[in-house]
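Last lecture ended with a question: if I hand you only a sequence, what can you say about the shape of the protein? Today we answer it with a concrete record. The protein is Ubiquinone biosynthesis O-methyltransferase. Below, first the input exactly as provided, then the predicted structure, then a couple of comments.
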Amino acid sequence: MNADPQELQKFSELAHRWWDPHSEFKPLHQINPLRLDWIEQHVSLAGKQVLDVGCGGGILTESMARQGAQVKGIDLSQKALGVADLHSLESGLTVAYEEIAAEALAAREPGHYDVVTCMEMLEHVPDPAAVVAACATLVKPGGHVFFSTLNRNLKAYLFAIIGAEYMLRLLPRGTHDYAKFIRPAELAGFARNSGLQLIDIKGLTYNPLTQRYAINDDTDVNYLIACTRDA
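The predicted structure:
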């Protein structure tokens, strides 16, 4: 299975805090409106069949359901999925959750989804290219696939690990492993090799003075890419 047991344990132990906007997951709550708006700039989610790969506690998953999409979230953390399922009941939203790997779902439901998202996950798995390939298989021809991850360079190390984990304490220490960061050219290569066409790339930056995030053209640290599958 394309998963790191230590990574799964790390996020499972924090699962009960997923929906606390002041917890270790505060950055996810802060960036969620930005990434949702960026996705909707490329495709209207209303009425679409959407899959959220590595959904965790369901922050993005629920927000896409609120836009009128029929959403399924998958993850390999049973505890995170339990939190996601419970929160969707409290929110009154219809979201389907399943504990399954992207590769296994791709074998079962190829070409089933209009939109596939895989956000803040690729840097936590042993073989990110396999996840990208699974996402490409899961989306319909002409559909959209969205990824976000971390660049691999000195600035990313200083900002995402030293700055975010040790100085500003935005994230728990050990959240990220620099060796697993992925350069945009590498991710674009994974996408092309899987039959996806890159249509957009944006950066996600944090201003420690204003404590605000923004989507812009600075891809040095965090970045997002949008792809379509060949029709």
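Comments.
1. Helices lie at 5-13, 26-42, 59-66, 78-91, 102-108, 128-138, 154-167, 184-193.
2. The radius of gyration is 16 Å.
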